[in-house]
Amino acid sequence: MKSAPVRKFLLPWIALCGIGAAAEVKLEHPDFIATLNDNNGKAGFSIVEKSTGTPVVQNGILFPGAKPLSPPSVSSITDSVFGKGRRALITVEGGTVSLDAYPSLPFVLVRSSLKNIGATDTDTASKEVATYTYNAPAAGLKTSGTGGLLDPGKNPGSYLFLACADPATRKGIVSGWITQKRGSGTVFSAVDGGKTNFKAQLEHGHLILKPGQSSVLDTFAIGVFPDARIGLEKFSDAIAKAHAIKLRPKTAVYCSWYAEGPGHGKAGTPATTIELAKFIKDQRLKEYGLGVIQLDDFWQDGPMMGGPSSEFSRVNPGGPYKDGIAPVAKQVKENGVDFGLWWLPFGRNHMQPDYKDKQDWFVKKPDGTPLRQKSFGGSCLDSTNPAVREHLKDLSSVIAGWGVDYFKMDGLSAGAGVDHVYINDSYKNDMLSGCLPLHDPSKTNIEAARMGMEAIRSGAGKNVFFSACCAVQNMRIYAGTIGLVDSMRVGPDFNHDGQGIRSGPLRGSWMYFLNGKVWWNDPDPTKVRDNNQNSEGDSAMNGAVTLDQARMTSSWVSVTNQFFLISDWLPNLPAERMDILKRTMAVHHGTARPVDYFDNNLANTWHVSDESSGVRRDLIGVFNFHPKPLKVSHALDKAGLIAGKTYHAFDFWAGKRLPDASGEIKAGLAPNSCQVIALRASEGRPLLISTSRHVTQGMVDVKKEIWNNNKLSGVSQVIGADPYELRIIVPEGYTAGEVKLSTGEKPEVSNEPGLLRVKFTPAKSGTANWSVAFTKA
What is the torsion angle, in degrees rounded to the nearest 10, for the CA atoms of residue 560, residue 228, residue 599 and residue 623? Predict the structure, then answer.
C-alpha cells in the first residue's frame, strides 16, 4: 500500500526534532526566518535576518513561566486582514502562543490565547506575552516610545510601541501592539549583559475567565529594519489595516478656548461666534484651509465639582448660550463653515440628582462607591452597562442634531474606568485593575472604553469628525480609541508641561508615524498673536509671540502635516500674522519624516517629498524651538535626498534663492525661528523651485509641471485676490521669453541671477494654466 504523502509544512519539525533534542520549527519570510521551539521547558523563539543570516532577536520566550504541553507545529493560515501566511504554534499551560508570518507584512506577529485551566474563575489583570533580546550592543542605542528618546536601560516603559535603533545608521528593532481591543499594550526595555532586553505586556484591568473558558489576546509585532523610522511607519500601516481605518478628511479648526479678549475665550458667545464665522467667509479663509469653528468648555449645564460641568444634553440657562446651540450652529454653517463642540463623553457627577437612581451606571471602587477621578474627569461611566451605552448613543444623537459636525471629546480616560494621571507619557502604574469588575464582568476595562466610543459613533452618525483629547491624561486612551477616532491630541494643553511652544511638537515628533495613518496627530493650537491680552480660557496661552515664533509653530504643523488648530482671535490679527495662517493652514499630501528622529528628543529637521505634480519636490524644514542659536548639517542621503545630486534651494519665509546644495544640507537659525527650504535636483534646465501660495512651495497648489520643447508649463490652484508668484530656476545658457497665463491677468515678470519670478493676482479662485518659453544659447 502506498504511504500517504507527508505535508510540507511538517518537514521542518520532523527534520529538526530528535530524541533528546529541542523540538523546533521555522517560518521563512522574504525578510527573516523565525524559529519557535520547546527548549528546556520554555516556548522559545528567535528571528534571523534573512539577507545576512544574522540573528537579530534571541532568547525569546512566549508566555514566560508557562511550560509547553506539545511540540511546536507549522501550518498554513489565511487571515482576514493580512491574507495567506504561515503559523508556528505551541500549546502551553494555560493557553496557546504562535508566531505568524505574512509575505506582505514585515513583522513577526505574536498571537496568543489564554485559557482558564482551573476550577474557579480567574481574573487576569496583566499578562506577559513575550520577552526577547535585541542582538546588538546596547551602548549607543536609543529607544523611542511614548515617553520620547531615552537610553534602553533608562526607559521606564512605553505604551503601544517601542523602537530601538542606532542613531548613526537608524538600523533597529520596532515592537508594538497591532491590536489593543481587550488589553492596553505596553513595552519595556532593560539592559543586561550589554544587550537590550524587551518585555511585551498586556494590561486588562479585569479579564475574567470561567473554568475552561479561553480568550484570544491582542496581537504583538516584532520587526527589524535598516531604517527604524520606516519600520514605525509600517507598524502604523499594519494597525490601520487591522482596524480598517479610513480617516475622515481634516481641515484647519478654530478652537475658542484660548482666544484672547473679552467674550472670545472659553466657549465664546453667540455674538462672537457668528462674528467670527462672517469674518472667515469675508476673508475667504475656508479656501486657505480653515473649515471648522469649535466652541469649548462652559456652554453646558451642571455644577462644577472637581471637574467641568457635565450635563451635555442641555445648555447652562444662565450662560451665553441660553437660547441653545442649534441657532448658533445654523448661522455658522450659513457662512460656509462647519460647527464643532467640546464635551466630555464618559465623565459625569454621580452626586447630581439626575443620577440618584442610576448609581449602577458608574465604575465602582473596592468599597462599592463610584470612582471619581482625582481631577478633571468626574465619575466614570461604565459602558458595559447597556443603559449607559443607550445614554451615550442618545446624547451624541442630540448633540449632532444641533448641527454639530465635529466632536471634540475630552477626558476619554474615564471611559476605561481609570484615574486621571495627567501628564502621562512613560509607563505609570495607574491601578487600571484597582476598581471592582465592571457591570458586565466578562468585559475588560479597555473593552468598556471601546464599547462607549462605538455607542457615540452610533448616535452621531458616520459623518461627524471625532477629535479625541487627550492621550497624556492617561495613555490607556490609545488602546481605548485606536480605530474609533479621527484625530488625537498627543500632548497636553499648551505649556502644561512647562515646554511652552515645544509641547505639541515634542509629542508630535515622537509619534509622527501615527499621523495620517492611525489618526491625525493634534499638537494643540499654534499661536500667532502679537498682543498681550489675557485669554479667557487656559492662562498658559496668554501673551504674544514674535513674528519668528509665529512662523515657526505654524510652519511646523504645516510641514509635518499634523492637525492644524488656531485659537487666536482672528479679526484682531495684523495682516502679516494673518498671512502666516494663510500660508500654512492648507493640507499637503507629501510624505513627512523627521531626519533626526533618533538623534534629538525633539527633532529639529524634517524632510517632505511629493511627486503628485509629475515631478519630485523636496522640502527641508529646520525648526529651532530653543532660546539659543542652532546649526544643523545633514548628509543629503540622511536628509532623504539623493547622494551625489546637486539641489537648487529656495527659502520660503526669506523669499529668496539659496546657494545650491551638494553633499549636505546646512542651516543656521536664530533662537525660536525656522527655515523652510524648497529643493529641486538640478537637471540642467529651467524648473519650478517654489511658489508663494503655501509654505510647502508647490505641494499644495501645483497640480502639473511639464518641460517640453524648451517650454516650462504647469497648472496651479490659485485663490482669488491672493497674489501668486512662480519662482523658476534659470540655468546659465537659458533665456526666458514669452509668459502666458490662462486667467487673463498680465503677469509681472522679474529676473534675478539664475531666477525668474512670475507674479500675478488672479481675479477669482480656480486653476491657472501658465507657461514660460525659453531659448537656449
Answer: -10
Cα-based angle 294, 584, 769 (whole degrees, multiple of 5): 120
Which residues lie across from 523 on neighbouring strands?
none
Q: Indicate the pLDDT class of residue 203, thresholds 50, 70 and 90.
A: very high
Place of cell 490652484: 717
Report which of 722, 701, 705 is spatially closest to residue 764, judged by C-alpha positions.
722
Q: What are 516-533's pLDDT values in tens digits?
A: 999 999 999 999 999 765
C-alpha 404/C-alpha 182 separation (Å) is: 31
Contacts of 416 (CB under 8 A, 6+ apart): 184, 205, 432, 445, 446, 448, 449, 474, 476, 477, 479, 480
Q: What angle do CA 501, 503, 509 make, to 5 degrees?
A: 110
What is the rounded distance in angstroms from the CA atom of residue 231 to the CA atom of residue 165?
11
pLDDT at 537: 72
Taking 60 as the threshold, does the pLDDT of residue 5 lie above it? no
Order of strands across the sheet that contains 755-760? 687-691, 724-729, 755-760, 748-752
Q: Which tens digits make up the pLDDT trace of 432-446?
A: 999 999 999 999 999
Over the range 259-281, which residues count as b (16 or more CB within 10 Å of their CB) and which as e?
A: bbbeebbbbbbbebbbbbbbebe
Over pLDDT 90: what percentage of the chain?
Answer: 92
C-alpha cell at 723: 497674489
Helices assigned H by DSSP within 518-652: 547-560, 575-582
In DSSP terms, 104 is beta-bridged to none
- Gap between the Cα atoms of 61 and 597, Å rounded: 30
d(CA 528, CA 551): 8
User: What is the spatial distance between Cα 65 and Cα 104, in angstroms, rounded to a whole number?
Assistant: 32
